[in-house]
Amino acid sequence: MWKSLKESKTGLVGVIVVLLVVFAALTANIIAPYDPTKQDVMNKLMNPVFAGGNFNHILGTDQLGRDVLSRVIYGSRITILVAFFGTILAGVIGTLLGAIAGYYGKWVDAVIMRIVDIQLSFPFVLLALFVAAVLGRSLKNVIIVAAISSWVQYARLVRGEILSVKEMEYIEAIRSVGSKNSRIIIRHIIPNIISPAIVQATLGMARIILMEASLSYLGLGVPLEIPTWGRMLSDGKDFMLSNPWLAILPGIAITITVLGVNLMGDWLRDYLDPKLNV
Predict the structure, then answer these.
(1) Number of domains the chain is built from
(2) Which of 17, 102, 131, 262 could pair with 159 as two cysteines, CB 3.0-4.6 Å apart?
(3) Comparison of pLDDT for 276 and 76, the residue scoring more
(4) In the chain, which ranges are E strands?
(5) Nearest-angstrom CA–CA distance, 221 and 77
(6) Per-residue pLDDT tens for 219-269?
(7) The CATH number of the domain where 227 resides is what?
(8) Given this model, what pLDDT does residue 278 score?
């Protein structure tokens, strides 16, 4: 894996970006220079260093005097938490339902796939907004929204893979010795078709990051007092003419993180799918 990563320049860049964001999230209370929620109205709307500001606030302050650098660093925590746990939950639910639909077929497959089709008929962001509005603002609810909005991709992918695997000789051999269907699915089928699901999970993280930013921008994400990149964008839009960096900086953070995740996902797809090298 390390040899493959070194040969892929874009993949290496993506992994480095993701690791830096994860590092910032894990060490935010150490590397952030200020409390991200502390207000100092006497020093509000200070320019960043590159716009003539001073080094006390490298990226300046917002309309309430809160340090922008600290808020960007702490905002990575919500992004990583929602992307990681939302992806894990969506992947587990989608993989299990897709495996059940593909293995058992018949009416079980029909019911699960019709549920998938119904959900896919709704735009991704619209569905997320609807669920978030019903559940309310909290980190747990945002993760649930991410899972509900994303599990269908895993279900369709895994179902398709299992349809091509379940009739293979090694599965017939396992059936012939009396193994239960649940054991066959969990122990013998899913481990052999998990690579595409891992790639889907990596690429799906980017969508969840954008979803979380969208919900926070609209005030439907985590509570307003918690710093997030989407919320910083929403607060900064009112100052685009006088202090544009208030929206530009969190926007850059979102863009770089999504780009890094996508580059890492592209590399994982190439590494885990040997057919691409044929």
Answers:
(1) 1
(2) 102
(3) 76
(4) none
(5) 14
(6) 877 887 888 898 888 888 888 888 888 888 899 999 999 999 988 888 887
(7) 1.10.3720.10
(8) 44
Angle value at C-alpha 158, between 154 and 163, nearest 5 degrees: 155
Q: Quote the DSSP letter at residue 48.
A: P
Residue length, the chain? Answer: 278
What integer is the mean pLDDT of 96-117?
A: 87
Pairwise CA distance, residues 85 & 81, whole Å: 6
- Measured CA angle at 68 (ends 24, 143), to 5 deg: 55
Distance CA 267, CA 145 (A): 28
- 185-225, pLDDT tens digit by residue? 778 787 777 778 888 888 888 888 988 888 888 887 788 78
Residue with tokens 């890094």: 260
Question: Could you please report the per-residue DSSP string of 202-223?
Answer: HHHHHHHHHHHHHHHHTT-SS-
Please give the structure tokens belonging to residue 21: 């964001």
State which residues form the domain around 61.
2-277
Q: Are 196 and 273 in contact (CB under 8 A)?
A: yes
Cβ 189 vs Cβ 171: under 8 Å: yes
Give yes or no for a contact between 103 and 189, defined as CB atoms under 8 angstroms apart: yes
Closest to 148 measured CA to CA, from 100, 211, 199, 190: 211
pLDDT of 52 reads 75
Closest CA to 273 of 169, 168, 196: 196
Three-class SS state of 67: strand
Q: How far apart are CA 59 and CA 70, in angstroms?
A: 9
Mean pLDDT estimate for the chain: 84
Paired tokens of 201: 């999970």
The verdict on pTM exceeding 0.70 is yes
Tokens of 167: 């009739």
Greatest CA separation found in the chain? 77
